[in-house]
Amino acid sequence: MRQSLRRSCAACAKSKTSCDLRTPRCSRCIKRKVECAYANEPSAGPATPGWQNGASTNPLDGPGTLTNYRFGSLDPFDSYPQTRLPREHVQRLIYSFLHKIAFQYYPLDLNATSNPFLISWWPLALGDPVLFHVSLQTACLDEELLAQKGFQTSELLMADSVALLRRKVESMSLAVQDGTMNSVITLATIEFGKGNTKVGEMHVNGLKRLVDMRGGINAVRQTSPLTARMVSWVSMLIMGHPQFETQDDFGIGDGIPPTSEWQFDSTALDDQLFDLSTIEVEYAVKNVFNRLRNIFQRARNITFPATQLHDLTCFVIHRLLLSAPATTIPPTSPMTESIRYGIILYMFITQGPTYYSHAVILNKIMIRFMENLEHLASTSRVYDSLDVWFGAVGMVASAGTAHHRWFINRARNIAAALQLENFSDTLVHIKTVLWLEKPQSEDLFRSHWDTVFNLADQSAEHDLCQKASNTEEVGHTRHYHDGHHDPKDDGYL
């Protein structure tokens, strides 16, 4: 139980000084070399990379470097692009972007020497006033959200970002630069997060024209992997459906390419796996299922890099959503569609949020998943391992939403029908369908099945779901402020 509502560390609270809430030690305690203890876990983001025992091991924190604003001049020549903000504020935002935002945007790589926002994005920003302003804006929004005192500074940066962008896109050669495209997709994300959906979509549509000018998303990827990844993924999150085609199974075409493992033989490697061939499933979905399962089986023996998983996730979700039929009730094949949306949800779960929250599109996919499972339940079939997997995916994907109770109840029915008594029983079934071995993967699913099997938790779970249903708004996005402005005011393409 929380002993205090205080979020700052004890040392900062005692001195009545603002605490930046970094973990495991805040910046003030590190500088003063004193103990840093929190009464409650701060919610200011991931731990500060590279700090150990009061000293920084991060290569970004060397003496006299560009980011060490607390210990001296950040840059005596102000060689970074100029803004209308006070110099000290700019330095603080730069520090925040490099030590916090970069890792929040790209949690797939928490290494300061390889994170693409540090080694690729930031060097571009130092030479591109638009991208520099946009980067500061992301850090500023984070700062203002914590302070809860309005968004005056980030709005100033937004106005300047758009003004600079309008001038830049007047030149075709400048319009197609990586810095321009990175700026546009980030502005789209910010507007979408504010609730200005139309403005966000306008940015995405303008960005698609820039991609076409570059020769397509695969051409962008050949020279700018980070830009291509972010553009294809975030544009889908904002628009609610894919904005770019995919290549075929052999990497032919101008769309999003498959990973190298995708082209391996899709014949099942393990005879103990659930046999999908006995079920009538459309080829497009069955092909994705079989190839994914083989990739995951091979990943048991080799390391599966996080960036590679992101590329695979992006390709698979695009491929499945692009091949999905228009919404028809009832669906022509509820089994095919249940597997389709089950795979999509599982890939979202396995990868986790990247660049920006995927909660909005996840909710849409989850509703389609539920609709098809309901139609599937009306058919004459006996529960099997596939149903256990459906239940597991649904419970994890719906955690914290009003839909969670629906999946819990369905999982209880499946467990009773198959005489499953504990999580170990269910895990055997789940792993025969589609499963990628990752650290903590089992724990992620275990907690939900523990609720299914522990009847004493049913009343508590009911209260939790009831609370979620009373507070959740379908398609909800976090608004940075309540104001909206005319999309025409931000037009530039």
TrEMBL record:
Keywords: DNA-binding, Nucleus, Transcription, Transcription regulation. Pfam families: Fungal_trans_2, Zn_clus. This is Zn(2)-C6 fungal-type domain-containing protein. PANTHER family: TRANSCRIPTION FACTOR (ACR-2), PUTATIVE-RELATED-RELATED, TRANSCRIPTION FACTOR DOMAIN-CONTAINING PROTEIN. Residues 483-493 have a biased composition (Basic and acidic residues). CDD domains: GAL4. Residues 8-38 form the Zn(2)-C6 fungal-type domain. It comes from Penicillium expansum. InterPro entries: Fun_TF, Zn2-C6_fun-type_DNA-bd_sf, Zn2Cys6_DnaBD. The keyword Membrane does not apply.
